[in-house]
Amino acid sequence: MPPAVIVFPNCKINLGLHITGKRPDGYHDLQTVFYPLPLHDALEVVTGTGNPTMALTTSGIPLDGAADNICTKAYRLLQQDFPQLPAVAVHLHKYIPVGAGLGGGSADGAFLLQALNRKYSLGLDEPALMAYALQMGSDCPFFIHNRPCLATGRGEHLQPLSLQLSDYRIVLVNPGIHIATAWAFARIRPAAPEAPLESIVRLPVPEWKHRLKNDFEAPVFSAYPDIAECKEALYRQGALYAALSGTGATVYGLFEKNAHLSFSFPPHYFVKEC
Ligand code: C5P
Q: Residue 2 has what pLDDT?
């Protein structure tokens, strides 16, 4: 029996996010920069027996039913085209906050596609994996690529960017609020950005504050003032830049390496330096 495979899906933050148009298929065109961060879930895959189905168990942050988990979707998508795929038992340990704008669920689905592809030698290349990933969600293809990039279209057209933030401390804060992606998109009036994101992120980080914007901040901050307060708290602590990631509810702050940080967020908030 092949040995177990364990992979560690990571999260992402969005550096700027503009909704540029509404599409006939119901989705929106957007422009954003995806930046991967080393905050991980863990996903173990072992070969099962019997009918080719996937048994999913989870630990860590509690999740709703297994049937509509993105891991189940990933397995079913591949099974349609690869009937030789055996039964598998998957264990997901959830650590990345859920419904948080960090892409944790998308990463789980994308990493499972890759793990199944490798473990069972399905022979899928990166474009093919990205096409499967897009069927699971708009920011899933990013996690196949998983390097800093400018994303357009629904979020699936990816252009690599030479951008690295390793000179900064990155702090994530999430007040435990779940934001439904569709709710957030419904509150945006699409518009062209004032300046292209790829030129703004090439500026020094201290110049991002009044230039690099996330369109979701206005509706999300007005509905959830606690999230707006997280961003203000990061700036009060000396962040060079702070913003909402995706549709939230996570905000992140970029700090100088030698910054002295002492936060006083309520104990149930998720606060993590990456
Ligand atoms: O693609 P995903 O499943 O993550 O999208 C969830 C919801 O977010 C969609 O049903 C849609 O309402 C909205 N969305 C959108 N345009 C995008 C991505 C998401 O309108 N580019």
A: 63
Averages of pLDDT over runs of 10 residues in the chain (274 residues) are 88 98 97 98 95 93 86 97 96 96 98 98 98 98 98 98 96 95 95 92 96 98 98 98 97 97 95 96
Closest ligand 1 atom number to CA of residue 29: 21
Active site residues: 12, 139
pLDDT score for 65? 76
pTM above 0.85, yes or no: yes
Three-class SS of the chain: CCCCEEECCEEEEEEEEEEEEECCCCCEEEEEEEEEEEEECEEEEEECCCCCCEEEEEEECCCCCCCCCHHHHHHHHHHHHCCCCCCEEEEEEECCCCCCCCCHHHHHHHHHHHHHHHHCCCCCCHHHHHHHHHCCCCCHHHHHHCCCEEEECCCCEEEECCCCCCCEEEEEEECCCCCCHHHHHCCCCCCCCCCCHHHHCCCCHHHCCCCCCECCHHHHHHHCHHHHHHHHHHHHCCCCEEEECCCCCCEEEEEECCCCCCCCCCCCCEEEEC
| Ligand 1: nearest atom to the Cα of 136 | 3
Ligand 1, residues 136, 138, 179, 188: which to mutate, most atoms within 8 A of Cβ? 138
* Cα of 80 from ligand 1 centre, angstroms: 24
